[in-house]
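Appendix B, Record 12. Input sequence as logged:
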Amino acid sequence: MVLTAQQLEALMPDASELESDEPEMESSLHYTQLLILVSCLEWLWREREDFFIGANLTIYFSRQQLRNREFRGPDFFLVKPTEKHPRKSWVVWEEEGRYPNLIIELLSPSTANVDRTDKKELYQNRFRTPEYFWFSPENFEFQGFRLIGDQYEEISPNSNNWRWSEQLGLYLGVEQEVLRYWTAEGNLVPTPTEAAQEAEIRAQEAELRAQQLAEQLRSLGIEPQ
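Logged structural output:
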């Protein structure tokens, strides 16, 4: 959502640079889940420079929010297209009025009710964020919503219980108790570590095939070059 100049002027508090002001995450499960969501998408889109991922980062959007200190930043959010560079927070009036295209909240006992109600209403009515998902790393509750008109409507899961994200061009689904990305073809998007391990395995297999071929050539009296 891009605001007009008049709308931006109405939103803009007197601040040039704002730090994020988010609480620590609930548990190591939440940290691990957030790391997977960020690192996998960064790896998949490693050739792109037109997006920003926010992880437990405050979104500043109005004078009233600053006055009331209502800093309800999402656990994970994606903005695109935008310039990819580090930010201390996401300040709407310094980003041409842009709000997140996609938000994922990680539920916990202390935040679940707010995530399902107040934050959902904020993202629907104020942010107009096209897609909103939540996932619990503790009991694996997983829901997804897409903005249709003025209301969020639930995204129906497929036969694998994955939910398609138009904003990502990927499925989101639970694999071994962790929320992961899947391509349209059904391939799991790896973590950087998994991708490196797979590359190493492929290199080892290629080396083995080369050795086997060399042995076959030598058995025929041909010295491989």
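The first strand starts at residue 52 and ends at 55.
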